Amino acid sequence: xxxxxxxxxxxxxxxxxxxxxxxxxxxxxxxxxxxxxxxxxxxxxxxxxxxxxxxxxxxxxxxxxxxxxxxxxxxxxxxxxxxxxxxxxxxxxxxxxxxxxxxxxxxxxxxxxxxxxxxxxxxxxxxxxxxxxxxxxxxxxxxxxxxxxxxxxxxxxxxxxxxxxxxxxxxxxxxxxxxxxxxxxxxxxxxxxxxxxxxxxxxxxxxxxxxxxxxxxxxxxxxxxxxxxxxxxxxxxxxxxxxxxxxxxxxxxxxxxxxxxxxxxxxxxxxxxxxxxxxxxxxxxxxxxxxxxxxxxxxxxxxxxxxxxxxxxxxxxxxxxxxxxxxxxxxxxxxxxxxxxxxx
Length: 344
Known about the structure:
Layout: E1 5-11, E2 16-22, E3 29-33, H1 47-52, E4 56-60, H2 79-92, E5 98-103, H3 106-116, E6 121-127, H4 138-141, H5 161-168, H6 170-178, H7 181-188, H8 206-209, H9 217-221, H10 232-245, H11 248-252, H12 257-266, E7 277-282, H13 297-302, E8 306-311, H14 317-320, H15 322-336
Parallel strand pairs: 3-4, 3-5, 5-6, 6-7, 7-8
Antiparallel strand pairs: 1-2, 2-4
């Protein structure tokens, strides 16, 4: 069955969100939220499957990305504004509730929507990044770091050292990614490596290396595209969008930890989530390492109806292992939210 994917935009006086859509107009909305440094197309393997099951599938470009609004201040990328974008998007669909699915930075967005607007959620599903009720920043993650891999004297910020690099050398960080954007895309979008389990990941040394890729930059690594994650067409689309907008917006998402913590505090009465929740662990995702470390503990404590599935993938799970992701999502929907499927 061929599923048509169409392009749309919702505009308000505060923001424009471009989005892809598929599936019947009267289907239950299923909103897929991408992370850094991705696009709506990151959900290209999920959209036709769930549209074919009768859901109205929506995948936006998040603020700072693609054809959505781009802003010139760090504070414009605080979670409060991003959540407002998503609620405006849902309102534009004429729906009260949606199933929300997030990955990477899209996961904190979905967790935050659930905190601040539980009445707008049928259920939520997140890939790789677990729930930290007090807000998403290295200070709130560090208590759960695996100090057997990241001893504090050598790796004080553990695998989240790269987030401090943004704070301390923001322009340098952007320049490192922008020096050769195509090389950056090919270097970032790679499958997980089972052999790297239990070893320090490169993001733990970002400040010492003065960048994600060291002194040579991504171009110096000269890595071929990893066909297990992206095709030539995908590489071209990511490269074009990031070339057009640059990395200021995507990287600015990391610059609002205090504001995001204050925003989470406003929803403290809702930190325990009652709606059906799915979390997909990446077995070979070592930046968002949730299997051997304690990073998933707050999520387990604060989700009343939590389903967990381990996917044999690296970080780019929806692109590397789409069959596993789609199966886990479909099984969860069938088990927890069967009434949202269309009537036969």
